[in-house]
Amino acid sequence: MKKVILITGGAGFIGSHVVRRFVNKYPDYLIVNADKLTYAGNLENLSDVDKKDNYFFEKIDIVDKQSVLNLFRKYNFDGVIHLAAESHVDRSITGPDEFVYTNIVGTVNLLSAALESWKNNFEGKLFYHISTDEVFGSLGKEGFFTETTSYDPKSPYSASKASSDHLVRAFNHTFGIPALISNCSNNYGPNQFPEKLIPLAINNIKNNKPIPVYGKGENIRDWLYVEDHASAIDTIFHRGKSGETYNIGGNNEWKNIDLIKLLCSIMDNRLNRPDGESEKLITYVKDRPGHDLRYAIDSSKLQNEFGWSPIPDFAEGLGKTVDWYLTNTIWLESILSGDYSKYYDLMYSGR
Ligand code: NAD
Ligand code: TYD
After folding, report:
1. Ligand 1: distance of its center to the CA of 9 in Å?
2. C-beta of 135 in contact with ligand 2 (< 6 A)
3. pTM
4. 191 Cα–ligand 1 center, Å
5. Atom of ligand 1 lying closest to residue 84 CA
6. How crowded is residue 213: how many other Cβ atoms within 10 Å of its Cβ?
7. Among 61, 148, 310, 321, which residue is least crowded by beta carbons within 10 Å?
8. What is the rounded CA–CA span in Å between residue 278 and residue 210?
9. Which ligand is the nearest neighbour of the Cα of 199?
């Protein structure tokens, strides 16, 4: 069946994997990638699919309501998969405003445009909002986030994502717009901007620079390979029910320090360094303010209803990720030669 689908934030980390999957798997769908191309958006991420007939790119700032309305009038979308966001917690601490504009105002602009476009007939339409497990706050040593866990966001990033989730549910409840949400745990894999823990550590290990570990390295995250997130999004977009929420997780909890040690051993292997060499770069630095202790997702609803499950084990997924960063040196160098060094100095000089 033909569909016209808007994917926002498709030039970013997760968005590019979702765009690639949909463009290749669904040749009958027309995929429109709308992205502002902030520091985190990179069209190089899509160089293998951008010549395909069923792919279109639109440079759009979702905070600009008129541009969003025009986009919906130009294409008559059947579905929206909304990933565009400011996504890095540390940046939300030094500058929360952009998170409010893009994550909250941007989402309401998309919802309003979808409502205007679809209000006479909701049949076959869907607004799918991609969110994070961080909206649930922080877990202690026990327990898991389920779909009914109360929201308790703790950072400006997670507060802005929580607001956007509430707005999606409010538009679904008040106006009847078909909408659903998924909340996913930490992703890793190719194309992730090297401000996030895993690519930042890979780059620093490669260059024999200190690996900054916040606090004591005891915070725990549940890591999911990015292509598994894309496959979950595909499943939920096609089989999920409007009004529902789905949790997506890797069932793969790691203390930051244990993850870094595993990464160091993979890097020693790939770079032909003696065992234990890269671990010497581990450097404990000042903790992130308000640092959430633990995230862990219960994704049994998604697994039981749709049979989805994550594929690679962590060492395998991390190995593939390391190989990608060591091979794609031009991609990495072009990021490092931009504003990245200013960002790095600002974030890490005081730690
Ligand atoms: P990212 O930062 O790599 O990419 C975000 C993309 O959004 C970029 O291409 C950027 O140019 C675009 N964008 C930013 N502001 C925009 C604006 N005003 N208008 C249009 N485009 C804009 O982010 P990511 O890690 O790929 O995350 C994608 C989505 O998934 C986000 O909504 C995030 O909250 C969610 N999520 C991320 C993770 C994770 O571990 N990375 C986990 C769960 C959920
Ligand atoms: P991050 O990749 O920023 O994801 P999130 O904060 O959304 O979970 O960080 C993952 C974990 O790693 C988090 O507990 C913070 C920690 N961390 C470090 O210890 N050092 C770093 O340089 C970074 C970026 C993160």
Report:
1. 6
2. no
3. 0.98
4. 12
5. 7
6. 20
7. 148
8. 9
9. 2
Tell me whether residue 52 is in a domain. Answer: yes
- Polymer length of the chain: 351
Active site residue: 61, 86, 134, 227, which one?
134
Q: How far is CA 284 from CA 67, 149, 214, 220, 254, in A?
A: 45, 32, 6, 16, 17
Q: What is the CATH number of the domain that holds 303?
A: 3.40.50.720
Is 234 assigned a catalytic role? no
Do strands 55-59 and 79-82 pair parallel, antiparallel, or not at all (unpaired)? unpaired
Q: Identify the three-state secondary structure at position 3.
A: strand
Whether residue 259 has its Cβ less than 6 Å from ligand 2: no
Distance 12 CA to ligand 1 centre (A): 6
Residue type, 81: I
Distance 117 CA to ligand 2 centre (A): 39
**Active-site choice (128, 157, 188, 246):** 157
**Can you give the pLDDT at residue 349?**
87
- Domain boundaries, position 68: 3-185+225-251+294-313
Q: Which residues pair with 211 in a beta bridge?
A: 282
Q: What is the DSSP string of 127-160?
A: EEEEEEGGGG--B-SS--B-TTPPP---SHHHHH
Looking at the 3D structure of the chain, how many domains does it have? 1
CA–CA gap between residue 306 and residue 191 (Å, rounded): 28
Which atom belonging to ligand 2 lies closest to the Cα atom of 198? 2
Three-state DSSP class for 18? helix
Condensed to tens digits (0 to 9), the pLDDT of residues 231-251 reads: 999 999 999 999 999 999 999
Distance CA 184, CA 233 (A): 10
Instruction: Say yes or no: CB of residue 134 within 6 Å of ligand 1.
Output: no
Query: Is residue 277 in a domain?
Result: no
Long-range contacts of 148-154 (CB under 8 A, 24+ apart): 154/290, 154/292
Whole-number pLDDT of residue 162? 98
pLDDT, one tens digit per residue, over 44-79 is: 999 999 999 999 999 999 999 999 999 999 999 999
